[in-house]
Amino acid sequence: MAEKRIVLSKCGSIDPQDIGTYIAKGGFIAFIKARDKMKPQAIIAEIKKSGLTGRGGAGFNTGLKWELARSIKAKAKYLLCNADEGEVGTFKDKYILSNDPFGLIEGMCIAGLAIGAQQAFIYLRNEYHFLYDPLVRAVGQVREKGYLKHMDIQVFEGAGAYICGEESALMNSIEGMRGESRYKPPYPPTRGLWGLPTIINNVETLMNVPHIINNGAAWFSAMGTGRSKGTKVFSVSGDVSRPGVYELEMGSTLRELVVGLAGADDLKAVQIGGATGNILPASMLDTPLSHETYLGSGAVVALNSGRDIIDVVQNDMHFLNDESCGKCTPCREGTEVMLEIFGRLARGEGHEGDINSLDALARAMAVSSLCGLGQAAAVPVLDSLRYFYNDYIDRINQSHFLRSYLGGELFKSEEGIR
Amino acid sequence: MVPSKKEALSENGRAGLLPALKDRAGREGCLNRESMSGLAGQYHLPLNEVYGVSTFYAFLPVLPTGKNIIRVCRCLPCHLKDAQAVIGSIKKELGIAPGETSGDGKFSFELVSCIGACDQAPAMMINDKLYGDLTPAGIAEILKSYA
Ligand SMILES: Cc1cc2nc3c(=O)[nH]c(=O)nc-3n(C[C@H](O)[C@H](O)[C@H](O)COP(=O)(O)O)c2cc1C
Ligand code: SF4
Ligand code: FES
């Protein structure tokens, strides 16, 4: 199946620094329709009916979330666009922000009408600093056109912390605190930024909104699967000949994406959804990609037959351990212990008990961690144990060979450490 | 921008803290005790609170850094494309390990989480500039442009 570019339809065909080129391609027609011809409730009803779900990872129904925030009486409401994109292997939001900032801003303008927000923020990760000025200028052009009379948009730059992509940590960060996750409930639509109703949506989620308003809920929900409507933008990297950003209808298979479009061959496995994503063997390439199966943020890392799965999971765990905010014990200490075990396996010092320890620890972290990072840290560990169990067994059984090999390497390397 | 006492103590008075910390760190290279106590005063916060916020974020150094900060990505897609060799090449060029600053104060060298350039792996940033599709042999040339 070919790509289906809806979210990305204007990327490459407009000048991201000139609102005129966006308007010439039909931009802001949806906003004007929503503003002049629709009540907020009607906008929400349309989004709800379309079945649009969050593209940031959790896949929650967007219209339902908006309705909740709309329904609460409060002195102010906030809209936050999550442009923190820190999930390992994800770069699709960067592509969108670089090529079509107006599409995002139009989506935010409509979301603001729907929930009744007067202030919005785009939380941009520090690593994307080069996008800060262009984004501020794009917001300025939209304001000049008079499309931001109901709400203001401020670009807020993060300071380098993956966990700030988690919605409650993101709010803490804007509030000037350490970016640690909050206890839930309350959820942001009821009590969010400064205790007020807040909607947080991913860049890609908001990009879909103008298209739904223009073409209708039925058009949108005709695409995709049962619980996953529309398209999804994927970031593909790793062992492929054409890494990059691809937009496909929901329910397309891994094979179409990774082999067909990105040009992988000789695959051993793929990891879907970043460092906390599922690791699937190549035999599962015909799995459709959707919320019902595997999706996450749409990051897909291809691993060829020469790759060592234990090394992959060790790298994931290193990231999670680095980026754990440290607020809750299962995640702060659990990632530490797992890293220690993976370190030993890598040095040829593993023993059979390690497999049980990893399994038990992963399950404990999944049920007792405070936020998604610690809860999902177990996913690659458990998947690798399920699909690549023999890799662990072989590694442990062959420890003495590994030690002797590494001993030789140690002898050869100049610094004495590898 | 110094907030008034009323602003600083209002419900969302701390909203300016992170931008202010970033601004200071950007201008002075790091957040020393003096700038942190200055900001603590402005925002009517204890110093330890400001220190706690600063040390949480990777882009808010509290110790002096080099004039240029090299951040090499060490996450999976870059790791698969042999980021290790790039790291080795930087080590050799500068004679320092990740976490260190060169003797002449020109470079600090760090390993960081995914910087969103995995389609150009292995990748790194020097200050705010992105470098992708790196090769160990190409490192010297890039570093020279910062001399
Ligand atoms: C550890 C962690 C990191 C996250 N990082 C991001 C991120 O970088 N971008 C994003 O949009 N959502 C991220 N999320 C999901 C957000 O918490 C939130 O669900 C999302 O922004 C909601 O928007 P959506 O409904 O439009 O997807 C992260 C979640 C967790 C637990
Ligand atoms: S699970 Fe990890 S990242 Fe989340 S609150 Fe606990 S320590 Fe922080
Ligand atoms: S993994 Fe290196 S840039 Fe994403």
Summarize the structure.
The complex is a heterodimer of chains A (418) and B (147). By secondary structure, chain A is an alpha/beta fold. Chain A has 18 helices and nine strands.
What does this structure look like?
The complex is a heterodimer of chains A (418) and B (147). In chain A, 46% of the residues lie in helices and 13% in strands. With 418 residues, chain A is an alpha/beta fold. Chain A folds into 3 domains: 203 residues, NADH-ubiquinone oxidoreductase 51kDa subunit (Rossmann fold); 74 residues, Roll (Ubiquitin-like (UB roll)); 109 residues, NADH-ubiquinone oxidoreductase 51kDa subunit, iron-sulphur binding domain (de novo design (two linked rop proteins)), CATH 1.20.1440. In chain A, the strands form 2 sheets. In chain A, strands 6-5-9-7-8 form a 5-stranded mixed beta sheet. With 147 residues, chain B is of the alpha+beta class. Chain B folds into 2 domains: 50 residues, no CATH class; 77 residues, 3-Layer(aba) Sandwich (Glutaredoxin). Helix content of chain B is 41%, strand content 12%. Chain B has 7 helices and 4 strands. Chain B has a 4-stranded mixed beta sheet with strand order 2-1-3-4, with helices on one face. In chain B, helix 3 crosses helix 4. In chain B, 40% of the residues are buried. At the A-B interface, strand 5, strand 9 and helix 12 of A face helix 2, helix 4 and helix 5 of B. The complex binds flavin mononucleotide, iron/sulfur cluster (SF4) and FE2/S2 (inorganic) cluster.
Please supply descriptive tags for the structure shown above.
heterodimer, A: about 425 residues, alpha/beta, Rossmann fold, Ubiquitin-like (UB roll), de novo design (two linked rop proteins), 3 domains, 5-stranded mixed sheet, 4-stranded parallel sheet, globular, B: about 150 residues, alpha+beta, Glutaredoxin, 2 domains, 4-stranded mixed sheet, about 10% strand, elongated, binds flavin mononucleotide, binds iron/sulfur cluster, binds FE2/S2 (inorganic) cluster
